[in-house]
């Protein structure tokens, strides 16, 4: 039996689940992710779309061109505005739901190491790199 992981928005109106382990756990430092989360980076669990299910709620999405050229869509709760996941058109992320790790219902899943940092040239200078994490740029 596969592991089932769930997540939800702040108000609880929207939820999702996925089976199995994420393909990658990554932090993204790009300007777009800063705007999406209102912080210095996002923490993303890349889940193959075939393993992902919306379990409840009315979500809305918004798409815009990313500063590095791909299209990026965010999917968020219409009630509280929480971004639950993103989708990107670049080859490395096609077919993935980029679950926003802060929406996971089980906080213990955040204790595992991040393996990848994306767009580190955009990292704020006071935030240290993660030891052992691959430093990648998708374009």
UniProtKB/TrEMBL annotation:
InterPro entries: CENP-V/GFA (IPR006913), Mss4-like_sf (IPR011057)
Domain CENP-V/GFA: from-to ranges: 5-127
SUPFAM superfamilies linked: Mss4-like
Listed PROSITE patterns: CENP_V_GFA
Pfam family, any one: GFA
Top-rank lineage group of the source organism: Eukaryota
GO MF annotation list: carbon-sulfur lyase activity; metal ion binding
Gene3D superfamilies with a match to the protein in the record: glutathione-dependent formaldehyde- activating enzyme (gfa)
Name of this protein: CENP-V/GFA domain-containing protein
Source organism: Oidiodendron maius (strain Zn)
């Amino acid at each position: 039996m596969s592991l089932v992981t769930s997540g939800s928005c702040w108000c609880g109106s929207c939820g999702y689940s996925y089976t199995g382990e994420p393909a990658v756990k990554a932090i993204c430092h790009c300007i777009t992710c800063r705007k999406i989360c209102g912080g210095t980076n996002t923490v993303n669990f890349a889940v193959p779309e075939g393993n992902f299910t919306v379990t409840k709620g009315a979500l809305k999405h918004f798409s815009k061109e990313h500063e590095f050229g791909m299209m990026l869509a965010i999917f968020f709760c219409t009630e509280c505005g929480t971004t639950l996941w993103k989708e990107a058109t670049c080859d490395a992320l096609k077919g993935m739901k980029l679950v926003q790790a802060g929406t996971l219902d089980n906080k213990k899943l955040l204790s595992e190491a991040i393996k990848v940092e994306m767009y580190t040239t955009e990292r704020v200078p006071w935030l240290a790199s993660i030891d052992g994490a691959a430093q990648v740029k998708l374009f």
